C-alpha cells in the first residue's frame, strides 16, 4: 500500500473544515468584549491547534493534494479557509515550506488568498515568520 492510499482524505478535509470554523470563531471572539483571552486559551485555541496540527502531521501528501491547491490561481477559497491552510503550512519546521507560503503571499493576485495568508502569518506562534512576512509585504 502506498502512502497516498493510506491517507484518509475525508478525515483531513474534516480537519480543514473544523480549523476554518474555529479560526472564524476565534477571530470573532477575540474582538468581543464578552470574551477574555484566558477563556479563548481554554476553549477555542486548543481545538483549533489540534486541527491545524493534524493537517501539518499529514505532511507532504496532504499539503500537496489538499492545502496547496487552495492557494493556487484557480482558488475559490475564502480568507478564513486560506488562513487555516496557511497556519497549518507554517506550523512545520520546514523552512522551505515556510518560504513557499511567503512566495504564495508575494505572488498571488487573489485578494482572498492574500488576506487569508496575511491572517495566517499574524496568528502564527513562530518568531521566524516575521521577517519573511515583512519582505513579502514591502
Description:
- With 138 residues, the protein is an all-alpha fold.
- The radius of gyration is 15 Å and the shape is globular.
- The longest helix has 22 residues, at 9-30.
- The protein has 9 helices and no strands.
- The mean pLDDT is 89.
- α2 (9-30) packs antiparallel against α4, α2 (9-30) crosses α6 and α6 (79-91) crosses α8.
Assign the structural class, choosing from mainly alpha, mainly beta, alpha/beta, alpha+beta, or little secondary structure: mainly alpha
What shape does the CA trace take?
globular
Q: Give the radius of gyration.
A: 15 Å
Helicity level: over 70%
What gap, in angstroms, lies between the N and C termini? 46 Å
Name the average pLDDT: 89
Quickly count the helices.
Answer: 9
**Could you give a short account of the major beta sheet?**
none
Instruction: Give the percentage of residues in beta strands.
Output: under 5%
Please mark out the parts with pLDDT under 50 across 5 or more consecutive residues, or reply none. none
Find the count of extended strands (DSSP E, 2+ residues): 0
> What's the order of the H and E elements?
HHHHHHHHH
Secondary-structure map with pairings?
Elements: H1 3-6, H2 9-30, H3 37-42, H4 44-57, H5 59-67, H6 79-91, H7 95-107, H8 111-123, H9 130-137
